[in-house]
Design a protein that fits this description.
The chain is built from 16 helices and nine strands. α3 crosses α16. The longest helix is centred in the last third of the chain and has 24 residues. The chain is globular.
Length: about 450
Amino acid sequence: MRSTRYALLAALVALPLLGACTDDESPIEPTVPAAGGQLFQRYVALGNSITAGFVSGGITAGAQAQAYPVQLAARAGASFTLATLAGRGCTPPYRGPFVFYTVRVGPGATSTTCDALAGPVPRLVNNLAVPGATLSDALNRNRPANPLSSLFLGGRSQVERMVEAQPTLVSVYLGNNDVLAGAGAGDTTRLTPASRFAAQVDSLVGWLKQTPAGQGGPGRDVVILGVAPFPALLQPGAYFFAQFSADPVGFQTRTGKTVNANCAPAPGNAFAASLVSFAIFAQPGIPQIDCDGITGLSTDFVLTPVETQALIGRVVAYNTALRGAATANGWTYVDVNEVIGGAGTTPATLRQRAPAAQFRLCQGLANAATPAAIQAAIFTTCPAPSDPTAPYAPGSAAYANFFGSWMTFDAVHPDVEFQTALARAIASALNAKHGTTLPTI
């Protein structure tokens, strides 16, 4: 999970940078087909932070080089260029779990540090993903409104840059951020309405059909990835209550909050399963974690069981639209829920089926009935250090996998192991459909 892992695969991937400037409007000449065949003659990725390589609250050149599109292109032996970030990145990643330590990697690094690009933007940028992007953002210029949008896209939209590139293969991983803002704030009114999302998918299809990839035929395809609600930013109220009840004074001193007894893992208390966002600790105006929701507040950083079901229902609706677009056009669909939890995993079962060693989502609390079992479940399946007696210190090995070995220090973005699993899943799907021989190990 540590951000320092992102030098590990440097030898695997070559990132040739093309020298022409982005305002050159002459046609982009196709490259010689790579070992992946005509399918990988030109591969372009659309997406958000995961696709871009964002980890631990930041993004660097090393992290960009570990993102699944780069790994997938490397498996095919295909050329794949990036708008590579310079120095400390934009912004630099956290050095430890953000709930303990918000210092970032690099001398003088802060949450506003942005060292821009390492050189001119290549004429052809294969990874067009922008951290923070919703599906709507990918369809519109200068969105999201952050420095990376301008740096990576130069004032265009992701889909405009895609059409300019005329790719033979496109991957699309969007929709996560249509859920994340509402989930993290405990406010389901901030989820993109299902009907609006479906209309945006239709618009995306129209753009894709302006490329060889979207038009189909031999050696042409679009890979659409489904949305999986896996952030460790959300944890059951019972997790917070157990910590509070074990040391009320210490917990309140550290966090400035108490925890209501309606979060207690008691028989018949459905609110113990309410999902509480770690973001609540940055809200001094909310003095208590209250698992039945806070009267009068829609943004209360708590999802009650009813609200959680509404969120899951929205994710299912998004995936229905995404899968439907893939099916209707003969494209490939990859279910990220199954990549994480195995065959048959759905958004409703993901949090329970995700391996606890990789994603610490308090999977064990659901069946813990005694104080000893609750403590054991917290230690083995909830965010916790590998040594429960180890005090936090920056760089502490005991906290390296605090949110799970596949989750980074911001509790939202996955590590390189997840990126590799995603590249492997896409490679397997393409091999099965197109007869390619991409490595899947």
